[in-house]
Design brief:
Strands 1, 2, 3, 4, 5 and 6 form a six-stranded antiparallel sheet that branches. This protein starts with 5 loop residues before the first strand and ends in an 8-residue tail after the last strand. It contains three helices and six strands. It is an alpha+beta fold. It holds the Pfam family GGACT.
């Protein structure tokens, strides 16, 4: 499995409560970025990214320190209630491309709503129209 950076769009962003709990001191870099093909829904209290053509979400590309990567990946999977192949997942960890502020692109891991959660959000969820959790 590739050691990709993470795209974070909610409570793991700098200044949000899970950033300090999980990321502080464990990253090499954190850069603003945009992900196309994703929209945000209010959890409430945290967002769900739902894959949708035409969507655009603001967040950060977080590159973990190499020595922290494996432990951080396990902890983020647990935080996001993700286990490979588990039908009870709230989120799925998928590989997607994002665009940095300088226009370059990078492949990242991103946690998106699992299919059953995404279907429910599309019919009854509260869309965060700005695509930015901080502006909700």
């Amino acid at each position: 499995m590739a050691e990709l950076p993470f795209f974070v769009y909610g409570t793991l962003r700098p200044g949000e409560h899970n950033h300090d709990l999980f990321l502080r001191g464990r990253t090499e870099s954190e850069e603003p970025a945009l992900m196309r093909g994703l929209v945000l829904y209010d959890g409430p209290g945290y967002p769900y990214g739902v894959e949708e053509p035409g969507g655009l979400v603001a967040g950060e590309v977080v590159t973990a320190r190499p020595e922290a990567y494996d432990a951080l990946l396990r902890e983020l999977d647990r935080l996001e209630d993700y286990a490979p192949g588990d039908p009870r997942n709230l989120y799925e960890r998928v590989e997607r491309e994002v665009t940095r502020a300088d226009g370059t692109t990078v492949r990242t891991w991103v946690y998106v709503a699992a299919p059953t959660v995404a279907a429910r959000l599309r019919t009854r969820g509260k869309l965060i129209e700005s695509g930015d959790w901080r502006l909700r």
